[in-house]
Amino acid sequence: MRKDFVKKCPECSGSNLSISSEKGEVICKDCGLVIDDKIVDLGQEWREFDSDSADKKRRTGAPSTYTQFDQGMGTEVGRKSDLYGLGRKNQSKFFRLRKWQYRISTAIERNLKLALAELKRVSSYLKLPKMVEEEAARIYTLAVQRGLVRGRAMESVVAGALYAACRRHEVPRTLEELSEASGVEKKEVGRTYRFITRELSISILPSNPSDYIPRFSSALRLTAKTQSKAVEIIEMAQKQELTSGRGPTGIASAGLYVAALLNGEKRTQREVADVAGVTEVTIRNRYKELLERLDLESEIKKIKKKKRDRD
DNA sequence: AAGACGAAAGTGGTTGA
DNA sequence: TCAACAACTTTCGTCTT
Prior knowledge:
By secondary structure, the chain is mainly α. The protein folds into three domains: 1-41, N-terminal domain of TfIIb, CATH 2.20.25; 107-199, Cyclin-like (Cyclin A, domain 1, Orthogonal Bundle); 209-310, Orthogonal Bundle (Cyclin A, domain 1). The chain is built from twelve helices and three strands. It has helices spanning 51-57, 88-125, 130-145, 154-168, 175-182, 186-199, 213-219, 224-239, 248-262, 269-276, 280-293, 297-310, and strands spanning 17-20, 25-28, 34-36. The protein has a three-stranded antiparallel beta sheet with strand order 1-2-3, covered by helices on one side. Helix 10 packs across helix 11. It binds a DNA duplex through residues 187, 190, 194, 245-247, 250, 268-270, 278-282, 284-285, 288.
């Protein structure tokens, strides 16, 4: 069963809430307020209604989880009782093997234990959905097994794995946010992110500017109308090929800035720039392109005229 | 005085020879 | 491996509201 954290929108007290578990957001459909954009956990996916469907769905027992350091399972190289019938030579070989196995696995386990603790810390700081945390843990485990952590700070690999997991699940967090949460430098996060996704050949779609809109616009306290206008503008921009090669946060913030302007809820460039983690200059550049290519100039002029008339 | 605008120089990353 | 290149940032002076 899903936990309902909020039943009514505190802004307009409508009960028309939309839960997007993938993005970890609860949005009021009436006024667009993002009530809780950082749901930690919505509970398990599968439910059992009767024994029939239970048999189909409950195929794995307890879900194996990557956030436990050994995925809830362990391996050992035999026990002493297995020694029966081995010759002397083989006995010592057996002990050597077991010693090595022990050393290697404890080294990996120790690392994983530490890393997963760190991963959980960062993830809960950013209030990421459980799915993303699991994914990040999976990625990190793979990275350890491939020996990709050697020579790299564990923290930065954790941050890189989390960033990758966010991108995969279209729950975008900026590099800055990851950097702030993990205490790893921004470039380092980006570097390890690129490294591990390349080495593990994890394919990641380029992030969509629209994915940032709900979070940014709620931070700026903008209405749902403005929010959907911004998404509209961004879609138009994508059709005009104004978006390729540009930073998605820059496009998102410019779209939001224009949308707010058109709906008479003006925010300054600085305000938008701050929540989006870009500079005013970038917003200006994108903004200029948007006006030129989407003929919004006349609409902007109308807004300005209206304002003058009011004075 | 605050916000918007734009030029110039610097940074880090990608690409192609 | 190096140089050219695009996107973005920082900084700063000027114009607009």
